[in-house]
Design goal:
The protein is α/β, with parallel strands linked by helices and 468 residues long. 37% of the residues lie in helices and 13% in strands. The protein folds into 2 domains: 334 residues, Amidase signature (AS) enzymes (Alpha-Beta Complex), CATH 3.90.1300.10; 37 residues, no CATH class.
Length: 468
């Protein structure tokens, strides 16, 4: 079993497999029962064949999926909506897509997503919802759980084996939530590191273009391509890093499985030499007051969607429309005060956490909800709509709670799997403020190796990536 695309690239280099064989295997997975729900469009054009990419390119032979809010030349950028399906196809690639293509990537197709990227659950009434999988241990979860969103199809494509890298976006957790719920690695970079030209916006302030992968080393390669920069590598041991656990908000109301998994992960890191301090971060309790008149995502999405809502509002997912419409009643003064309050809050949080290299939290406080409990109204008995809508609102708020803190901070974060075989997937989130990306990657390599070693000791059969 090839563990990640770094291992695939090694096999391509030594002739143990070919790019054509690798692509064929991914295409077969894309047409499987589990794989096909990840996509709203599968590429068939030979213009995207990986055999045309020279093998020295970092993504030659690597299948990549693209979230449907990025422009791809010749594809319609519909962002998971009915409203945009009839618009003309894009004439150029988004910058993120162009950088992946220049690195040799094969574009497999356009992935399922929450309509206009405005939810962390992963459902969309316009398309069948892909089920969460456990990519870390290569198994179906049995029951149908939500994949997390909004980059639901990006996660499903990587978890099902039809892509090695899923290009997505993260405005409040849309990369890290599906990473946690599918046993994947999800990295949210400092927002300004990857250009957003050619990307349909949700929040111009908070949006980040980033990727889902199978390992931290793959995430490093993906980031270096997307951000057109090299990270500074370190081989310092865990004992050399200063780590903290914020007890405020992030550890509240954890599902028992998440609490147990997080406690176990921290204990394993400490056994491996990590020095971890628990701290209060009272600034997190101030977020509801900061948002009492609305959120940046609501204000900025409404500004973009107002003309479309006037003409096509009836074709929106009602759950998404409700969240966008929340921005209708925010005044310009509300919006400007929110930005100022955010800037002040960022300064306060950064001052409190500056002495640490990273903070550790559960990526999500719950595991994936069952799809039947939160499915869109069109999917099940309409008599149950109110109950499912209420369950959706609760699940969405919980799934976004921890991850959205980092977006509000204008920070960076890495979610790595921390579950054992037989458990529902869950993530450990390493995070900090802006421009701490390199430290998170170096720590992530160490944490990933530590947690995976324990899982292998528990009897799982999976090749462990080799790190510095």
């Amino acid at each position: 079993m090839i563990s990640d695309f770094t291992a695939l690239r090694a096999q391509l280099a030594n002739g143990r497999t070919s790019a054509a064989t690798a692509l064929s295997a991914c295409r077969a997975q894309a047409h499987s029962a589990a794989g096909k729900l990840a996509y709203t469009h599968l590429e068939t054009s030979e213009n995207h064949a990986c055999r045309s990419a020279p093998l020295h390119l970092p993504l030659a032979g690597v299948a990549v999926s693209v979230k449907a809010l990025f422009d791809v030349q010749g594809w319609v950028t519909h962002a998971g909506s009915k409203v945009l399906q009839a618009q003309p196809a894009a004439t150029t690639d988004a910058v993120a897509v162009a950088r992946l293509r220049a690195a040799g990537a094969t574009l497999m197709g356009q992935t399922h997503m929450v309509e206009f990227a405005f939810s962390g659950v992963g459902t969309n009434p316009h398309y069948p919802t892909p089920a969460a999988m456990d990519a870390l241990w290569g198994r179906d979860l049995g029951d149908v759980y939500v994949p997390g969103g909004s980059s639901s199809g990006a996660a499903a494509s990587v978890a099902s084996g039809s892509a090695w890298l899923g290009l997505g976006s993260d405005t409040g957790g849309s990369i890290r939530i599906p990473a946690a719920l599918n046993g994947l690695v999800g990295f949210k970079s400092t927002a300004n590191l990857v250009p957003l030209q050619g990307t349909l916006p949700l929040s111009s302030t908070l949006d980040t273009a980033c990727a889902l992968t199978r390992s931290v080393r793959d995430a490093i390669t993906a980031h270096e391509i997307l951000a057109a920069r090299r990270i500074t590598r370190s081989c310092a041991p865990l004992a050399a890093w200063r780590l903290a656990i914020p007890s405020t908000l992030m550890l509240s109301d954890l599902a028992p499985a998440i609490a147990a998994g997080f406690t176990r992960s921290i204990a394993l890191l400490r056994q491996a030499g990590a020095h971890i301090e628990e701290i209060a971060l009272p600034e997190l309790d101030a977020l509801p007051a900061i948002h009492r008149r609305g959120t940046l995502a609501a204000a900025e999405s409404f500004a973009w969607h107002e003309p479309l809502l006037a003409q096509h509002g009836h074709n929106y997912d009602p759950r998404v429309r409700q969240r966008i419409e929340a921005g209708r009643h925010m005044s310009a003064a509300d919006y400007l005060r929110l930005h100022q309050a955010r800037n002040d809050w960022i300064a306060q949080v950064n001052a409190r956490i500056a002495r640490f290299d990273a903070l550790l939290s559960p990526t999500t406080p719950i595991t994936a909800p069952l799809l039947a409990a939160v499915a869109p109204a069109s999917a099940l008995d309409p008599a149950q709509d109110a109950a499912r809508d209420a369950a959706f609102v609760t699940a969405n708020a919980l799934l976004l709670r921890n991850t959205s803190v980092v977006n509000m901070l204008d920070g960076c974060a890495l979610s790595i799997p921390c579950h054992l075989p037989g458990e529902l997937p869950m993530g450990l989130m390493l995070w900090h403020g802006a421009d701490r990306d390199d430290a998170l990657f170096n720590l992530g390599l160490l944490a990933e190796s530590t947690l995976l070693t324990e899982a292998l000791r528990q009897g799982a059969q999976r090749a462990q990536p080799l790190h510095c």
